[in-house]
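Chain entry —
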Amino acid sequence: MPTEKPLKILVIQFRYLGDTVVLIPALRAIRERYPDCELHILVPEEVGPLLQHLPWLTRLWLMPRRRGRALFSKSWPVLRALRAERFDWSVDFGGVDRSAIMTFLVGARQRLGFLGPGGFLGRRFCYTHLVPLPPRDRHESRRLMHLLTALGIEESGSLETEIHTDPASDLPAEKILPEPKILCHLSSSQPRKEWPLAHWVALQQLAAAVGIELLFSTGVGAREEALMADFKRLAPAAVVLPPVRDLALYLAVLKRARAFVTGDTGPLHFAAGVGTPTLALFGPTSAVRWAPVGSHHRFLTGSACACYNVSVCQSAVHCMAGITPELVFAEIKRLAQAPCQRRPGL
């Protein structure tokens, strides 16, 4: 008897690295609902290591991108190859102008996206199906999963993320981090989401006084490196992780960490994805919406603040200053005493 041809689905995501990680539960929900489908995903090329080794993705497509510039000569061959795939559905989780245009140009028979404000005139006509944006009081992974109701997928299932690291990075990662340590990440993409530097210094001193060695890291941008220089000047005894600029290698290093402590930033979601316990520090952004999900993840929150739409906190006292070093140190001691556990399968 003839059987129905399996669906061929393309997922499109053109937001930040952390946004890609919180999308993974929705990808898994598609695979669980349609186990025989061809599941492809299109993301910017720098995002590739986050998804490259997921065993249930059919194909990962990488789009060349440079912020503020369109690389048409490099993008067109990818678009042409995508059009030749003749997808049944394309699902745009990003909801930005670039992903809307990509959705239209790929030419899937059914094109799904969020119905939201803003964007270029006529963006809504890039889609054949639109789903209203869900409320902001839900976890972001659940909000993304809401889009899939148009594909007959219920808003249910685990919201835990998963990232499978590259086995080729295991040995280099061991050289960088020979023993599991509690890793404290100072920086975020936006200063408003960073715990005050003086608090990090006080935390290092509290830990050193009882013999708990913390390892400190930051991002690889000029601002982040300047932040680390200030930290080392204030806490010269602190042990610092060397900068790791290769994302695949960085994921393997995070997987070796005993725990990861930071604010609301992409590396927080990376660490959760590779199975490392996390302690997240939240201020201007919502822990309900963005904190990693799972029994081995915890968070602390600062005071309410109106700095959500600006890059730097404008309050006289930083909204994250209410998370005292003593509160974080209490959690650090719990992490140091707990057995080193990993989520099964990662």
